[in-house]
Design a protein that fits this description.
Blueprint: H1 7-16, E1 18-21, H2 27-44, H3 66-69, E2 74-77, H4 79-82, H5 84-90, H6 93-103, E3 107-118, E4 125-128, E5 142-147, E6 158-160, E7 195-197, E8 204-208, E9 213-215, E10 224-233, H7 247-252, E11 267-270
Antiparallel strand pairs: 1-8, 2-3, 3-10, 3-11, 4-9, 5-8, 5-10, 6-7, 6-9
Bound molecules: 2-oxoglutaric acid and fe (ii) ion.
The site of fe (ii) ion has 3 residues, from loops.
Length: about 270
Amino acid sequence: MRYKLTDNEIGSYRKNGFLIVDDFLDANELQTWRDAVDNAVENRKGRKFPHSELKSGEADGINKDAAYFGNVFVQIINLWQSDEKMKELMFDKRLGEMATTLSQSEGIRIWHDQSLIKQPWANPTSWHLDTPFWSFDSREALSIWVALDDVTLQNGCLYFMDGSHEHTELKEPGIGSNMGEIFKEYPAYSKQSPTASVIKAGSCSFHNGLCLHAAGPNMTPGVRRAMTCAYMPDGSVFNGKQNVLPDEYFNSLKVGDLLNNEDQNPLIYHKSWD
Ligand SMILES: O=C(O)CCC(=O)C(=O)O
Ligand SMILES: [Fe+2]
């Protein structure tokens, strides 16, 4: 795993709001990740969360148009909670160190992991922001997105709007089935050309959850598998929004409470550990 970031890479992330890390996993590690994700996804039998019966693609509070969203990707959340091998991979301190460095935080917690699998002929992923959906407010929250297959312009690569993380807001703009809906909120970005993240299997990208991003449709008969994890800086507090928390825990929280429950948001790295 190539986890030591150079000053150039860190600077590029800070400036653009995303970073591509080529050859992140070596061939053996890639095989391990593929096997672990395939197995963990299969064992969940389509259940989106470990704690409920909702299936990936079914309508919920965020995804109202099930016919469309059901064919954007297979989205299975918090594999670390239902699979020991995924827990080992997601708790890797080296991932935590990267996320801590990029977010300039003291330590990092898992917000949630998720597999995002675009099946053959999947719909595109509309332009959106991540952080406004989450149950804490942070301009530094971010995700890693690990390519488990070669990701091309044809099969649904990500696109990023360079520098947009400096200008977007935490208020919830929603995600619709209209590719460019969010540009009504951020018209300046409807004029900017995005960067396409064409990467090999085993490479990864990081993006700030406030950097505008999207993915193309899968115009191939093959799958586009990605394993991702969203990270919350240690010390973040509850903002009252529901997202992926089990209802019982959600209902026990008051706005302003520290999100430090190790069973839900484990600390995977802290600078004091070094
Ligand atoms: O993989 C995709 O299609 C979208 C990924 C995404 O939006 C994310 O990882 O935040
Ligand atoms: Fe996203």
